[in-house]
Amino acid sequence: MPQIVDLTGRVALVTGGSRGIGAAIVQALAEAGANVAINYRSAAADADAAAAKVRAIGRKALAVAADVSEASAVAKLVRTVQDGLGPIDILVNNAGIALIRGIDDLTEADFDRTIAVNLKSVFLCTQAVLPHMREQHWGRIVNISSGAARGAGGVGLHYNASKAGMEGMTRGYAARLVKEGITVNAVAPSLIETDMVRAGVAATPSRIPLGRFGTPEEVAMVVMMLVGNAYMTGQTVALSGGMAFS
Ligand code: NAD
Q1: Which uninterrupted H or E stretch holds 39?
Q2: Which CA distances in Å does 177 have to 20, 145, 202, 242?
Q3: Which of 14, 64, 128, 213 is deepest in the core (most CB within 10 A)?
Q4: Ligand 1 atom 6: the closest Cα is on which residue?
Q5: How far away, in angstroms, is 109 Cα from ligand 1 center?
Q6: Would residue 40 show up in a list of annotated catalytic residues for this protein?
Q7: CATH number for the domain running over 11-245
Q8: 145: which strand partners?
Q9: Residue 201: band (very low, low, confident or very high) from pLDDT cuts 50, 70, 90
Q10: How do 90-93 and 139-144 pair as beta strands?
Q11: CB-side exposure of 124: number of CA atoms within 13 Å?
């Protein structure tokens, strides 16, 4: 029985793949054999560094700037990846923002931006990659949700709503694509040590029963498990150091 996912010849796109959890997923996909497109919004140097690490292990990499909340940018992103690496077999919807707001300081603009970046982007990217996946009867889509989809978390209700919506969309796509060889799953991490957590969320490792933050590599391991498994679809896999059991 194969113990390691072999993605030789596959093309993956990781949104927000320039740093944090996304960068660890990029590396894990490349180590499994995939050629990887690294989407980023503005941090070109980080994306170039992630691409260099992929090339260092003999895979192809392409760093592509795009705001995944915009339909035209997503269409251009997917075209650029297809032209540079080939059609996309694996999509990891990882890009996200966590604007920390309370009930009283949450503005309509904050709400709209969060839903656009964290939720609408998943719809836009998924729709853009599906034609090729359906044609070849094989595809893997993994959405990076959050413990905040089911728990309160420290970011705000707009973030809760965006990630809960993402998990609903995960099930919706999974049910409709199950006969077409395409799996759609979500990973729900809590408190992974990245810029997002370092930038706020009033989080300390003492909140976590395990006694430490999770690592981006631990999230990437779950993503790889989902990419390698044809029978599992429509699921959300949580990892939270014992903070929540769902
Ligand atoms: P991060 O801030 O380090 O990385 C976020 C990435 O998303 C960056 O590469 C950024 O450039 C990209 N991005 C943001 N807006 C974008 C846009 N409009 N278009 C394209 N790219 C965009 O954060 P992270 O912790 O690595 O978060 C990655 C994902 O994991 C996010 O969806 C986040 O909500 C989720 N998550 C993180 C934690 C955690 O504890 N760190 C917990 C639960 C869920």
Answers
A1: strand 35-40
A2: 30, 20, 39, 32
A3: 14
A4: 16
A5: 19
A6: no
A7: 3.40.50.720
A8: none
A9: low
A10: parallel
A11: 22
Ligand 1 centroid from CA 142, angstroms: 14
Give, for ligand 1, the residue of 42, 92, 163, 194 to mutate: max count of ligand atoms closer than 8 Å to Cβ.
194
Residues 17 and 50 sit within 8 Å (Cβ to Cβ):
yes
Name all residues whose Cβ lies below 6 A of ligand 1: 15-16, 18-22, 39-41, 43, 67-69, 94-98, 117, 144, 146, 189-192, 194-197
Full DSSP string of 187-240: EEE--BSSHHHHT-TT--GGGSTTSS-B-HHHHHHHHHHHHT-SS--S-EEEE-
Q: Which residue ranges make up each domain of the chain? A: 11-245
State the CB neighbour count (10 A cutoff) for residue 130: 18
- How far, in Å, from the CA of 20 to the mean position of ligand 1? 7
pLDDT of residue 202: 58
Is the overall model pTM greater than 0.90, yes or no? yes
199 CA: nearest ligand 1 atom: 2
Q: Which residue type occupies 94?
A: N
Per the structure block, which two tokens stand in for 138? 């094989």
* Candidate list 40, 159, 173, 231, residue with the active-site label: 159
Point out the ligand 1 atom lying closest to the alpha carbon of residue 148: 43
Average pLDDT, stretch 216-238? 98
Tokens of 56: 């260092």
Which two structure tokens, joined as six digits, stand for 232?
């599992």
